[in-house]
């Protein structure tokens, strides 16, 4: 068996038809904490992508098609076991690639990847996927029943912020439904998708069921995959702009798409909230993973009565965060993913000033006495005083930053929170549950939390409205997307 684990820091290759495959073109994988090169990654050319798609097609029609749901589910549990067996290795790879604190990778990213396989393995077993529906609508002339089939070869394209978590969120249900996959992880974070190949081998998945191609988006691996006529569907998580480009690209071959895109999420904090809980919740919602979670909150609306004390409280939270080395247990704020992304975030810090913001804290780059100065850290940042029309209020920044504005009435808060082209997530903080329900139901988003944030049950629908996405995944929503019914009608 080819071993990737021992060589992790040196060379990351594509994984096609059960083999690790090198190539002529390579790109560097950097550690965002100090800018050092941690690996050379093989960029998949068009021929590699073609090979991967053909391997996935052969696997779709081979042994994988003969394996029943129960056996498929049991192999997915074995994939989860195989990840757990390599837990530390996955954690280290994710920390090195993303710069996220080890506490986060070991408590969130990797356990959630394990859970993704276990949840969808169990769900597909109880869903009755093979004979999804039996109907005789008029009860007389015909018996109708529908069988659900896999979509075929699914192209999976994912971002860098929660690399393995988001990749397995799509791969697990796709495989549970009997599809085969060609995945393209982000060029910034290629390691854990490649490690997963070993877990797949360990779990006894036939060659070609899981393939990995590395590279970039436009004019590279991502585009080769979306345009490939042998790919039957695309599931994508990333920026809204990229979603739009992929939509154009798949149009010619009419592929179904599932899109989980960007956000500009709001929180509404009422004066009757549990102040300390709201403060802790919002501190996570703004700064977790250095603000690089699609669900993070960049717009905070606080009832005027508690505005000043809330701003002061969140400032204290921001200033207490420790921008340490990712591998230190005490670190709670890692770097941004790349120099390019840091330039983008810093350009918004400057823009906020130009747009007339009042800086409460942060706004720049922290100074260190070691090599973290070569990494991509920024200060956690809070602004107030911007008009709602400001670009910093309208555009996703994707960093550890928020703007806090005051409101006087529930209606005003709802109107401001909904005044966005995005529609991913919102959170409401109040001790009045009636108001919690009332306001939550008026949010134009895919998920609204009341008195919490990022509390997830993987069986519930997940996705966004507007620029935040197309479709829902999670639980049966995923199984519905990754399979399609064939209705069979028998005349009685
Ligand atoms: P991105 O869109 O730049 O890249 C995502 C993936 O798409 C990468 O693998 C990239 O190589 C690929 N890609 C880029 N252009 C492509 C093209 N033209 N054709 C095919 N593939 C292409 O996003 P990112 O910067 O990696 O991630 C951050 C974004 O992801 C943020 O906007 C964030 O809100 C969003 N996100 C959304 C969710 C969600 O569930 N809604 C979750 C995480 C992140």
Annotated CATH topology of the largest domain = Aldehyde Dehydrogenase, Chain A, domain 1
Tell me the total number of β-strands. Answer: 21
Query: For the CA atoms, what is the radius of gyration?
Result: 23 Å
| CATH class category of the largest domain | Alpha Beta
Calculate the mean pLDDT score and round it.
95
Q: What is the makeup of the main sheet?
A: 7 strands, mixed
- Count of structural domains: 2
| Oligomer kind | single chain
Low-confidence stretches: 1-6
Verbal overview:
- There is one protein chain.
- By secondary structure, this protein is of the alpha/beta class.
- It has 2 domains: 11-261 and 468-491, Aldehyde Dehydrogenase, Chain A, domain 1 (3-Layer(aba) Sandwich); 265-457, 3-Layer(aba) Sandwich (Aldehyde Dehydrogenase, Chain A, domain 2), CATH 3.40.309.10.
- It contains 16 helices and 21 strands.
- Strands 15-16-17-14-13-18-19 form a 7-stranded mixed beta sheet, with helices on both faces.
- Helix 3 runs antiparallel to helix 5 and helix 10 (275-287) crosses helix 11.
- The model is unreliable at 1-6 (pLDDT under 50).
- Residues 157-161, 166, 184, 186-187, 216-218, 222-223, 226, 237-239, 242, 245-246, 260-263, 294, 396, 398, 424, 464, 469 line the site of nicotinamide-adenine-dinucleotide.
């Amino acid at each position: 068996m080819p071993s990737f684990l021992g060589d992790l820091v040196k060379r990351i290759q594509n994984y096609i038809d059960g083999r690790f495959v090198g190539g002529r073109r390579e790109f560097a994988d950097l550690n965002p904490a100090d800018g050092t090169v941690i690996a050379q990654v093989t960029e998949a050319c068009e021929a590699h992508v073609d090979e991967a798609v053909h391997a996935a097609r052969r696997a779709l029609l081979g042994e994988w098609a003969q394996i029943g749901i129960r056996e498929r589910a049991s192999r997915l549990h074995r994939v989860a076991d195989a990840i757990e067996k390599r837990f530390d290795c996955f954690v280290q790879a994710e920390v090195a690639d993303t710069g996220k604190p080890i506490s986060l990778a070991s408590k969130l990213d990797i356990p959630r990847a394990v859970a993704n396989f276990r949840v969808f393995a169990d769900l597909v077993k109880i869903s009755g996927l093979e004979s999804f529906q039996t109907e005789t609508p008029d009860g007389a002339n015909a018996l109708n029943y529908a069988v659900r089939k896999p979509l075929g070869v699914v192209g999976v394209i994912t971002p860098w912020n929660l690399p393995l978590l988001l990749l397995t969120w799509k791969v697990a249900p796709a495989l549970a439904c009997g599809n085969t996959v060609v995945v393209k992880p982000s060029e910034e974070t290629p390691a854990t998708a490649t490690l997963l190949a070993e877990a797949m081998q360990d779990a006894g998945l036939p060659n070609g069921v899981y393939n990995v191609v590395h590279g970039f988006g436009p004019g590279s691996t991502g585009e080769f995959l979306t345009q490939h006529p042998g790919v039957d569907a695309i599931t994508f998580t990333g920026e809204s702009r990229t979603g739009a480009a992929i939509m154009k690209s798949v149009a010619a071959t009419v592929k179904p798409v599932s899109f989980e895109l960007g956000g500009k999420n709001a929180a509404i904090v009422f004066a009757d909230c549990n102040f300390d809980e709201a403060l802790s919740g919002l501190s996570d919602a703004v700064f977790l993973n250095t603000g690089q979670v699609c669900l993070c909150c960049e717009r905070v609306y606080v009832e005027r009565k508690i505005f000043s004390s809330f701003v002061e409280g969140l400032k204290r939270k921001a200033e207490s965060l420790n921008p340490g080395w990712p591998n230190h247990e005490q670190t709670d704020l890692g770097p941004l993913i790349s120099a390019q992304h840091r330039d983008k975030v810093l350009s918004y810090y400057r823009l906020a000033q130009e747009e007339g913001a009042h800086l409460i804290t942060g706004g720049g780059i922290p100074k260190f006495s070691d090599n973290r100065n070569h990494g991509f850290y920024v200060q956690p940042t809070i602004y107030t005083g911007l008009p709602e029309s400001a670009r910093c209020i309208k555009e996703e920044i994707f960093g550890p930053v928020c703007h806090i504005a005051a409101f006087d009435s529930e209606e005003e808060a709802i109107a401001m929170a909904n005044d966005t082209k995005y529609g991913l997530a919102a959170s409401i903080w109040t001790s009045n549950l009636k108001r919690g329900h009332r306001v939550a139901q008026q949010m134009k988003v895919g998920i609204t939390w009341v008195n919490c944030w990022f509390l997830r049950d993987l069986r519930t629908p997940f996705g966004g409205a507007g620029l935040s996405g197309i479709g829902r995944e999670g639980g049966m929503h995923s199984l519905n997307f990754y399979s399609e019914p064939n209705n069979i009608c028998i005349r009685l």
